[in-house]
Specification:
The protein is 63% helix and 0% strand. By secondary structure, it is an all-alpha fold.
Amino acid sequence: MNGVPSVGPIRPQSVFPFETDAQQKGPATFSEMLKSAVKSVDALEKNADEMMLKLATGDVKDVHEVIMAAEKAEMALQLTVEIRDRIIEAYQQIMRMAV
């Protein structure tokens, strides 16, 4: 019996969380998700700019780090623009639908 691990309390299956469960807090709305994504892209671009400045002043010796930061920022920006374009296209298609 000592080798059997505890399985914890048995709970009924329910869509409602128990008060003792940790509340999972994530972006609640679509606009909050978009704001969070734009903020992360902005942070990547600021980091790339900072790395380029440090490279110019001689604080960073590894050019590879600077190039990687710049490429991350560029790819994130391209992805954001592509997602924006797709959202606008979907909105335009919805608006063209006959009711």
